[in-house]
TrEMBL record:
Originating organism: Orenia metallireducens
UniProt lineage: Bacteria, Bacillati, Bacillota, Clostridia, Halanaerobiales
UniProt keyword annotation of Lyase present: yes
InterPro entries: ACMSD (IPR032465), Amidohydro-rel (IPR006680), Metal_Hydrolase (IPR032466)
Any one GO cellular component localisation term in the record: cytoplasm
Record domain Amidohydrolase-related: where: 89-258
Presence of the UniProt keyword rRNA-binding in the record: no
Keywords: Lyase
One GO MF term: hydrolase activity
Protein known as: Amidohydrolase-related domain-containing protein
Source domain of life: Bacteria
Length: 259
Protein backbone atom coordinates (compact mmCIF):
# COMPACT_ATOMS: atom_id res chain seq x y z
CA UNK A 1 0.00 0.00 0.00
CA UNK A 2 1.24 3.49 -0.83
CA UNK A 3 0.16 6.50 1.22
CA UNK A 4 1.22 9.96 0.08
CA UNK A 5 1.41 12.12 3.19
CA UNK A 6 1.62 15.42 1.32
CA UNK A 7 -0.86 16.29 -1.43
CA UNK A 8 -2.51 19.53 -2.49
CA UNK A 9 -5.34 20.95 -4.50
CA UNK A 10 -6.54 24.47 -5.29
CA UNK A 11 -5.59 27.46 -7.38
CA UNK A 12 -3.65 30.50 -6.28
CA UNK A 13 -1.32 32.72 -8.33
CA UNK A 14 0.92 30.44 -10.44
CA UNK A 15 -0.22 27.22 -8.74
CA UNK A 16 -3.11 25.39 -10.32
CA UNK A 17 -4.12 22.00 -8.99
CA UNK A 18 -7.72 21.17 -9.81
CA UNK A 19 -9.26 18.33 -7.79
CA UNK A 20 -9.66 16.22 -10.93
CA UNK A 21 -5.92 16.51 -11.61
CA UNK A 22 -5.12 15.30 -8.10
CA UNK A 23 -7.43 12.31 -8.38
CA UNK A 24 -6.21 11.34 -11.85
CA UNK A 25 -2.63 11.52 -10.64
CA UNK A 26 -3.33 9.23 -7.68
CA UNK A 27 -5.00 6.77 -9.99
CA UNK A 28 -2.30 6.82 -12.66
CA UNK A 29 0.51 6.16 -10.18
CA UNK A 30 -1.36 3.67 -8.01
CA UNK A 31 -1.35 5.78 -4.87
CA UNK A 32 -3.82 4.14 -2.50
CA UNK A 33 -4.40 6.96 -0.05
CA UNK A 34 -3.30 10.52 0.62
CA UNK A 35 -3.34 13.46 3.02
CA UNK A 36 -4.41 16.65 1.28
CA UNK A 37 -4.52 20.38 1.97
CA UNK A 38 -5.83 23.38 0.04
CA UNK A 39 -3.13 25.78 -1.15
CA UNK A 40 -5.71 28.57 -1.33
CA UNK A 41 -4.76 29.19 2.31
CA UNK A 42 -1.54 30.96 1.17
CA UNK A 43 -1.39 34.49 2.57
CA UNK A 44 1.79 35.61 0.78
CA UNK A 45 2.82 34.61 -2.72
CA UNK A 46 6.10 33.10 -3.95
CA UNK A 47 7.70 36.55 -4.09
CA UNK A 48 6.72 37.14 -0.47
CA UNK A 49 4.13 39.68 -1.50
CA UNK A 50 0.91 39.80 0.48
CA UNK A 51 -1.93 38.42 -1.62
CA UNK A 52 -4.33 41.33 -1.65
CA UNK A 53 -6.96 40.10 -4.05
CA UNK A 54 -9.65 37.62 -3.09
CA UNK A 55 -8.10 35.67 -0.25
CA UNK A 56 -10.52 33.01 0.88
CA UNK A 57 -11.32 32.94 4.56
CA UNK A 58 -9.57 30.31 6.65
CA UNK A 59 -12.87 28.48 7.13
CA UNK A 60 -13.76 28.59 3.43
CA UNK A 61 -10.35 27.16 2.47
CA UNK A 62 -10.86 24.19 4.75
CA UNK A 63 -14.56 23.63 4.05
CA UNK A 64 -13.39 23.03 0.47
CA UNK A 65 -10.99 20.38 1.78
CA UNK A 66 -13.79 18.80 3.81
CA UNK A 67 -16.07 18.67 0.75
CA UNK A 68 -13.35 16.98 -1.30
CA UNK A 69 -12.43 14.47 1.39
CA UNK A 70 -16.06 13.57 2.00
CA UNK A 71 -16.46 12.69 -1.67
CA UNK A 72 -13.41 10.38 -1.61
CA UNK A 73 -13.52 8.78 1.81
CA UNK A 74 -11.50 5.73 0.79
CA UNK A 75 -8.79 7.88 -0.86
CA UNK A 76 -8.23 11.07 1.13
CA UNK A 77 -8.05 12.75 4.50
CA UNK A 78 -7.42 16.43 5.06
CA UNK A 79 -5.10 18.84 6.79
CA UNK A 80 -6.51 22.16 7.98
CA UNK A 81 -4.40 24.94 6.39
CA UNK A 82 -4.04 27.67 9.00
CA UNK A 83 -3.95 31.41 8.20
CA UNK A 84 -2.29 32.85 11.28
CA UNK A 85 -1.22 36.11 9.59
CA UNK A 86 -4.63 37.34 8.42
CA UNK A 87 -6.77 35.39 10.87
CA UNK A 88 -6.38 33.41 14.08
CA UNK A 89 -7.51 30.34 15.95
CA UNK A 90 -11.21 30.69 16.75
CA UNK A 91 -13.99 28.78 18.45
CA UNK A 92 -15.31 28.02 14.99
CA UNK A 93 -12.00 26.35 14.03
CA UNK A 94 -12.07 24.27 17.20
CA UNK A 95 -15.65 23.14 16.64
CA UNK A 96 -14.98 22.38 12.99
CA UNK A 97 -11.99 20.19 13.81
CA UNK A 98 -13.72 18.27 16.58
CA UNK A 99 -16.82 17.77 14.46
CA UNK A 100 -14.77 16.59 11.50
CA UNK A 101 -11.99 14.67 13.17
CA UNK A 102 -12.81 11.64 11.02
CA UNK A 103 -11.93 13.71 7.94
CA UNK A 104 -8.95 15.75 9.15
CA UNK A 105 -5.71 14.32 10.53
CA UNK A 106 -4.38 17.65 11.73
CA UNK A 107 -3.09 21.05 10.67
CA UNK A 108 -0.80 22.38 7.97
CA UNK A 109 1.33 25.48 8.48
CA UNK A 110 3.40 27.18 5.79
CA UNK A 111 5.92 29.58 7.34
CA UNK A 112 6.89 31.04 3.95
CA UNK A 113 3.38 31.62 2.63
CA UNK A 114 2.22 32.93 6.01
CA UNK A 115 5.38 35.00 6.57
CA UNK A 116 5.75 33.67 10.09
CA UNK A 117 7.68 31.13 12.12
CA UNK A 118 5.77 28.21 13.64
CA UNK A 119 7.18 29.38 16.98
CA UNK A 120 5.44 32.76 16.56
CA UNK A 121 3.00 33.75 19.28
CA UNK A 122 0.19 33.84 16.68
CA UNK A 123 0.46 30.06 16.17
CA UNK A 124 0.19 29.28 19.85
CA UNK A 125 -3.55 28.71 20.15
CA UNK A 126 -3.58 26.33 17.19
CA UNK A 127 -0.74 24.39 18.80
CA UNK A 128 -2.40 24.25 22.20
CA UNK A 129 -5.58 22.92 20.66
CA UNK A 130 -3.69 20.31 18.60
CA UNK A 131 -1.70 19.25 21.64
CA UNK A 132 -4.85 18.82 23.69
CA UNK A 133 -6.63 16.74 21.04
CA UNK A 134 -3.70 14.86 19.52
CA UNK A 135 -3.84 16.41 16.06
CA UNK A 136 -0.67 16.33 13.96
CA UNK A 137 1.06 19.41 12.51
CA UNK A 138 2.74 19.40 9.10
CA UNK A 139 5.09 22.36 8.70
CA UNK A 140 6.88 23.41 5.52
CA UNK A 141 10.62 23.69 6.21
CA UNK A 142 13.30 25.34 4.08
CA UNK A 143 16.45 27.43 4.15
CA UNK A 144 14.76 30.79 4.77
CA UNK A 145 14.56 32.21 8.27
CA UNK A 146 10.82 31.66 8.85
CA UNK A 147 10.95 28.08 7.53
CA UNK A 148 14.09 26.97 9.40
CA UNK A 149 13.63 23.41 10.75
CA UNK A 150 14.93 24.60 14.10
CA UNK A 151 11.65 26.43 14.84
CA UNK A 152 9.71 23.18 14.39
CA UNK A 153 12.11 21.45 16.75
CA UNK A 154 11.51 24.19 19.33
CA UNK A 155 7.73 23.84 19.31
CA UNK A 156 7.92 20.04 19.14
CA UNK A 157 9.79 20.14 22.45
CA UNK A 158 7.05 22.27 23.92
CA UNK A 159 4.08 20.22 22.62
CA UNK A 160 4.85 16.52 23.09
CA UNK A 161 1.34 15.31 22.12
CA UNK A 162 1.63 16.71 18.62
CA UNK A 163 3.37 14.71 15.92
CA UNK A 164 5.23 17.29 13.83
CA UNK A 165 6.22 16.59 10.25
CA UNK A 166 9.06 18.65 8.81
CA UNK A 167 7.84 18.77 5.24
CA UNK A 168 10.85 18.78 2.81
CA UNK A 169 13.33 18.36 5.70
CA UNK A 170 14.67 21.81 4.84
CA UNK A 171 13.93 22.58 1.20
CA UNK A 172 16.94 23.90 -0.71
CA UNK A 173 19.40 22.65 1.94
CA UNK A 174 21.39 19.41 2.14
CA UNK A 175 18.79 18.26 4.73
CA UNK A 176 21.44 17.54 7.36
CA UNK A 177 20.11 20.03 9.92
CA UNK A 178 16.56 18.64 9.71
CA UNK A 179 17.82 15.05 9.88
CA UNK A 180 19.88 15.86 12.97
CA UNK A 181 16.89 17.48 14.71
CA UNK A 182 14.53 14.61 13.85
CA UNK A 183 16.84 12.21 15.70
CA UNK A 184 16.44 14.25 18.88
CA UNK A 185 12.69 14.06 19.52
CA UNK A 186 10.17 11.23 19.35
CA UNK A 187 7.38 13.47 18.05
CA UNK A 188 9.40 14.95 15.18
CA UNK A 189 9.22 13.41 11.70
CA UNK A 190 10.50 14.14 8.22
CA UNK A 191 8.96 13.68 4.80
CA UNK A 192 10.38 12.99 1.34
CA UNK A 193 8.69 15.84 -0.53
CA UNK A 194 11.32 17.31 -2.93
CA UNK A 195 14.09 15.46 -1.09
CA UNK A 196 16.70 13.58 -3.16
CA UNK A 197 16.43 9.83 -2.77
CA UNK A 198 19.96 9.48 -1.37
CA UNK A 199 19.08 11.97 1.37
CA UNK A 200 15.88 10.06 2.16
CA UNK A 201 17.99 6.92 2.57
CA UNK A 202 20.38 8.86 4.79
CA UNK A 203 17.46 10.12 6.89
CA UNK A 204 16.13 6.58 7.30
CA UNK A 205 19.55 5.31 8.40
CA UNK A 206 20.13 8.14 10.86
CA UNK A 207 16.63 8.76 12.26
CA UNK A 208 15.18 5.28 11.93
CA UNK A 209 12.69 4.16 9.31
CA UNK A 210 9.82 4.90 11.68
CA UNK A 211 10.55 8.64 11.41
CA UNK A 212 10.35 9.32 7.66
CA UNK A 213 7.22 9.55 5.49
CA UNK A 214 6.64 9.40 1.77
CA UNK A 215 5.25 12.71 0.44
CA UNK A 216 5.35 14.52 -2.90
CA UNK A 217 3.41 17.82 -3.19
CA UNK A 218 1.48 16.13 -6.05
CA UNK A 219 0.06 17.30 -8.35
CA UNK A 220 2.19 20.45 -8.16
CA UNK A 221 3.92 19.70 -11.48
CA UNK A 222 0.82 18.22 -13.08
CA UNK A 223 -0.61 14.73 -13.33
CA UNK A 224 2.85 13.22 -13.75
CA UNK A 225 4.46 14.82 -10.69
CA UNK A 226 5.26 11.29 -9.50
CA UNK A 227 7.78 10.85 -12.30
CA UNK A 228 10.13 12.98 -10.24
CA UNK A 229 9.87 10.38 -7.49
CA UNK A 230 10.81 7.43 -9.67
CA UNK A 231 13.86 6.49 -7.52
CA UNK A 232 12.00 6.34 -4.26
CA UNK A 233 8.96 4.63 -5.74
CA UNK A 234 11.19 1.87 -7.08
CA UNK A 235 13.10 1.45 -3.84
CA UNK A 236 11.66 -1.97 -2.99
CA UNK A 237 14.78 -4.14 -2.81
CA UNK A 238 17.05 -1.18 -2.11
CA UNK A 239 15.38 -0.46 1.20
CA UNK A 240 14.67 -3.39 3.52
CA UNK A 241 11.09 -4.57 3.60
CA UNK A 242 10.59 -2.98 7.01
CA UNK A 243 12.03 0.36 5.86
CA UNK A 244 9.91 0.33 2.73
CA UNK A 245 6.68 -0.49 4.55
CA UNK A 246 7.33 2.15 7.20
CA UNK A 247 8.12 4.83 4.63
CA UNK A 248 5.14 4.21 2.37
CA UNK A 249 2.46 2.97 4.71
CA UNK A 250 2.92 2.23 8.40
CA UNK A 251 4.28 5.57 9.61
CA UNK A 252 1.42 7.48 8.02
CA UNK A 253 -1.12 5.06 9.47
CA UNK A 254 0.31 5.49 12.95
CA UNK A 255 0.97 9.24 12.91
CA UNK A 256 -2.35 10.14 11.30
CA UNK A 257 -4.34 7.43 13.11
CA UNK A 258 -5.74 6.18 9.83
CA UNK A 259 -7.28 2.85 10.81
ZN1 LIG B 1 3.35 21.37 0.04
Amino acid sequence: MIIDSHLHFGQIRKFNMPQEMLLKSLERYNIDFGIVSNIEGCEFDSKMEFILEKQLSQMRVNVKTLDLVKRYLNKLKGQFWIKPYTESFTKEVAEFMLENKDYFVGFKMHPYHSNMKISDERCKEYLEFANKHGFSFAVHTAGDNNSDPYHVYQVAKEYPNINFIMVHMGLGTDNSKAIELITKLDNLYGDATWVNFDRVVEAIKKCGSDKILFGTDAPIDGIDTYQKYEDIMRSKGILTEEEYNNLFELNAKRIFRLD
